[in-house]
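Reopening this one. Same input as before:
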Amino acid sequence: MLLGAVLVLLLAGAAPASAHAALRATDPDDGSVLRQAPRHVTLTFTESVGLLDDSFRVFGPDQRRVHTGEATHADGRSDTARVGLPGKLAQGTYTVAWRVVSADSHPVSGAFSFSVGKRSATTFQADTGPPEDPLTRGLHDAARYLAYLAAALLVGMAAFALLCRPADTSPLRRPLTAAWWTLLGSTAALLLLRAPYESGTGPASAFDASALGRTLTGRPGEALLARLVVLLLTAVFLVRLAGRRERRGPATLATGTALAAALALTWAAAEHASAGIQVPLAMTSSVLHLLATGVWLGGLVALLLTLRRASDDLAEVVPRFSRIAFASVTVLAVTGLYQSWRGLGSLFALTNTSYGRLLLAKLAGVAVLLLVAGYSRRWTQRLAAPAAAVRAAVPARVPQPVGAPAEHGEPGEPEGPGKPGEPEGPGGAAEEPPAPDADRDDQRRRLRRSVLVEVAVAAVVLMITTVLTGTLPGRAQAEAAEQAPAGSLPPTTETTVPFDTGTAALAGRGAVHVTLDPARVGENGIQAVVYGSDTGLVVVPELRITFTLPSRKIGPIDAELTDRGGYWSTNSVNLPLAGDWTMKTTVRVSDVDQVSVERRVRIEP
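Same output, byte for byte:
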């Protein structure tokens, strides 16, 4: 019942999407030159996105910020972002910097440009929004790790108490309480840090009322609120569970399972599993993966605490946990394999993306963990051997009268000076076999050391997992690379053409910096700036650029550049075929002094 309620709360309106939003289209197109100023700037993404107060920053040709309206979703579509522009925009190039929050709770940002009337002679580096505050990021990452660790301990130790049924659960009470409080505190910290983490600002902005209100109405904030509710119910469950061994029946186990699943669901509903392909299956796999991690890691800590005290039921408790741990590892293997396929998308991403390399590091840690677990299992089997079997290996000794025949010897075999039927020791007396209790204490100490190493390695693996959940999946990275904004222009081609007219004039030597945009078949724009020998801008009477495609005997095609007062440009040179074109640049610095220089440029289809 509780699990269903949390599921409905967190998944309302969820739809399949691509983990981490990728920009699909911009309006105006990136790099376009418009005759009239647009009324809006609209972005379309591959999945639904959340908007921030500062989702758009628009900068004009003078590098000053343009006043814009409030960011909204276009036509009510959650996969879009739109902002209104002023009624009149000056001619020149405008840069749009944007920042939104993808459906899997991670902020994404970028920038593009468009021009009104003509392109600006010079451009500047776009401000893509406030830089990510390192203190905010550090605090947020620390809180996420503590939350994962505390949840694993809470789930695992409670499962150990319910499933392994140790006679004395007092060693687990304080750690359980500490795990609950740690998870409560880290969840509250994540709730406060959510707004500055999304906007990239400092921790002080966490207490801004409007930002906090926006957090509470978003999916990540709702998931954190749901986690707090589940934690309160868990506290009631743990209080009722403490000291009531006789009530640990099927109903208690079912309640604990529902609470643990609801807790795991608060992670699955707000991270990678909630966006991408096969969302229902991915979320189910994520919940099972988190629960198996908790049962194994938290159970190891509970076992370590239990082994510190000698107990008569260790021979029963340890094998029970060994079977539970084996089942947990099986679940981890199956769900981990599925999640790896879903996150990577291809073997290429395993070594060529940050997500893939982190996944390899996690797999290496898990391999070490399984190796250590093998040693633990060996000592578990020895510790589980019944004490009666140890004693059965020692022959029964019944006192015999002096001179009586040996009980275990052959008929007529003489007896030695020791006890009847026993071998002599080094000092002439019979040796006593080692005490079974001493053997069991030694086995318990060896198992405790092995489990301690398991816990340490598991903590490292959990840390890598925390980083992995905040890393762009390989599949999404590939999709983002393929999803170039529809109608956008590819990168420009920039060429520097040095020239020397053979005159001593300042403009007799220099270079022409030519930008060909978009360097593909069809209409192209050209901007050319002439620099003198002192690298300063110079004015020349004439600058001419022509294009020839020798392989097809096409050209020369004159670009017909226009002097724009400091630079030369055109927006209408048509290059009809792809290939290696010859760009001939002619610079005239006086009535009689000029020079032509040829450069090869590549025109893409």
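So the earlier flakiness isn't reproducible anymore. For the record, The radius of gyration is 37 Å.
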